[in-house]
Amino acid sequence: MNANELRDKTPDELRDELVNLKKEAFNLRFQQATGQLENTARIKVVRRNVARVQTVLNQKAAAAAGNE
User: Fold this and answer.
1) Is the pLDDT of residue 1 over 90?
2) Structure confidence by residue, pLDDT tens digits, 11-32
3) CB-based contacts of 11: which residues, under 8 Å, 6+ apart?
4) What is the pLDDT of residues 27-64, one digit of tens each?
5) Residue 19 burial (CB count, 10 A)
6) CB atoms < 10 A from the CB of 21, how many?
7) Which key words are in the record (predicted)?
8) I need a labelling partner for 68 at 20 to 30 A (CA). Which of 4, 34, 42, 57 fits?
9) Which residues contact 17 (CB under 8 A, 6 or more apart)?
10) Burial level of 28, CB count in 10 A (0-12/13-18/19+)?
11) CB-based contact 53:6 (threshold 8 Å)
């Protein structure tokens, strides 16, 4: 997932994606705490994807505020 793909999505789709990513991050943290996590690099990927989605959402909000 890259920022260009995210910019093509609507804010509602981005919020849904953000919720899904946060749920995945929670599950990964839970697996790590219980010693069941096999791919520890996935945590880093999910965290960065959350940051990307939040950045694009903020950019869209700023653009919408600028247009009004």
Assistant:
1) no
2) 999 999 999 999 999 999 999 9
3) 57, 60, 61
4) 999 999 999 999 999 999 999 999 999 999 999 999 99
5) 11
6) 21
7) Ribonucleoprotein, Ribosomal protein
8) 4
9) 6, 9, 53
10) buried
11) yes
Tokens 């989605």, located at residue: 53
Domain 3-66 class? Answer: mainly alpha
How many CB atoms within 10 Å of residue 15? 13
**Tokens 């919408």 appear where?**
64
* Structure-token match 């509602």, residue found: 12
pLDDT band at 68 (very low <50, low <70, confident <90, very high): confident
The rounded distance, in Å, linking the Cα atoms of 11 and 22 is 16
Distance CA 36, CA 25 (A): 14
